[in-house]
Fold each of these.
Amino acid sequence: MAREHHLSSVGAPGGALPSASTEPIGGQHAEQLSPDRVDQAAAIHAMLADPTRIRILWALRHTESGVGALAESAGCSPTAASQHLSKLRLAGLVQSRAEGTARIYRLVGGHVVRLLTESLAQADHTVNGQPHHD
């Protein structure tokens, strides 16, 4: 049975929605977001929208690994893990290198680990009932 997640009261004290402001967001110095940057960020988040890919990336947070070990960590077949890794590589979240006949994967940069850590911390507020904070 799928769980429903309600986001209407996220971050609001007592579950109430915060009041809207008529002031410009960020004032005069608000950073402008280019369409390319927003599209790329959305593509990265789309890669994180799959539980198997999150498990694969989490398994890579401290070490390099091959497809078989990543499949075992993610609870999927090596074929499925390979397909997910291919998508993650095309998205620029992982890199691979040859080691004999095997491919060894690793995360690209520290941003991926921080994205995962923050996403899982946010999930803890819903799943474990942890209070929200700034």
Amino acid sequence: MDATLTPLQAVLRPERSDILRASSNAVPVKDPGKATAQMSEREVDQLLVERAQRGDKQAFGLLVTKYQRKLGRLLSRLIRDPAEVEDVAQEAFIKAYRALPSFRGESAFYTWLYRIGVNTAKNYLVSQGRRAPTSTEFDSEEAENFDDSDNLRDINTPERLLLTKQIGETVNAAMDALPEELRTAIMLRELEGMAYEEIATVMDCPIGTVRSRIFRAREAISEKLRPLLDTAPDKRW
């Protein structure tokens, strides 16, 4: 698995996603290019946060799209296993969504998200009986200084919004084309946030079968997304 969250949660159609999705009308301005030229990145984030706090899940989906890779790369410094990083990052985004009402904008959104991610990772390590780093070993100030500029783009340009729409349509089509058992497994994992053990119970099958189905579903969706995301064959969505 790739060590980061992916656009899947941010682009699934409304009836399939309760939390993480995005579409081309998430920031409805008459001229997105001009609007973002006058806004700082923090201001754009704050705009999306405020919309998400008012119930606009599409706005939160764009925040996921923007920061999923960066958060995943940071968490990979705490957790080495890519599959575990993916799980912890997804849990962090879900926690952030649920905690949105408490966000007051006193810090940048990513700094706030970063702290949630690090705390989630530390709790995960402790639950696994592994040593969690101290605050001095992994300070939250790194959230602002971590250089991941090659993986961040202005999400509010017309081109970016069009790409987000195309990604969403591609993911939806890929999901529809999946066999029922693969589609059910990936939806329970990515949309409902269920643990593998829970999915195994729901689907009445071994955990190994659940992992295999989710892996195959991700591979199928990844194959459809590669032309849009220009990802290497060894990377998934």
